[in-house]
Amino acid sequence: MARVTVIKGSGNVFGDLGFSEEKSAELILKSNLLQAVQDTIKSRGWKQVEAAGQLGIDQAKVSKLLAGQMAGFSIERLVHFLSLLGQDVVVTVREAPRGRQRGTVRAKILNSLEKKVAT
Question: How far apart (Å, rounded) are the C-alpha atoms in residues 52 and 63?
């Protein structure tokens, strides 16, 4: 039986894959927005053609979105899709704590229960 080496991740999969800090931050944000688009489409039980009509894109692009392909979808475009799906997207900018020269990028997606509590 072959030995397997397990290395604990840092919590930033993109950083662990060798992406720069800046690119990792962008990819984390994009992946969270993409997940929100996927979750919204799936929760509504839409077929890809229905989602395409709502988003104003063709079914092939919806297929790519649902497959998790981020290439070809900018952060701006994903935010636009969420708006078309009736989702609010909130961006908060604040100063990083002392001692840290660079800020971080995080996204939190409120599920249905959290949305009810937040409003």
Answer: 9
Give CA separation, 45 vs 13, 38, 40, 42, in Å: 30, 11, 9, 5
Region 53-60: what's the mean pLDDT?
97
Contact 43, 37 (CB under 8 A): no
| Rounded distance between C-alpha atoms, residue 74 and residue 37, angstroms | 13
Can you give the C-alpha Rg of the chain in angstroms?
17
Q: Which amino acid is present at 2?
A: A
Given a cut of 70, whether residue 56 has pLDDT beyond it is yes
Instruction: Give me the residue spans of the domains in the chain.
Output: 18-93+103-118
When pLDDT is averaged across residues 72-97 and rounded to a whole number, the result is 90
d(CA 36, CA 101): 30
> What CATH number should be reported for the domain whose range is 18-93+103-118?
1.10.260.40
CA nearest 85: which of 113, 29, 43? 43
Q: Output the pLDDT for position 82.
A: 95
What's the rounded Cα separation, in Å, for the pair 82 and 67?
Answer: 17
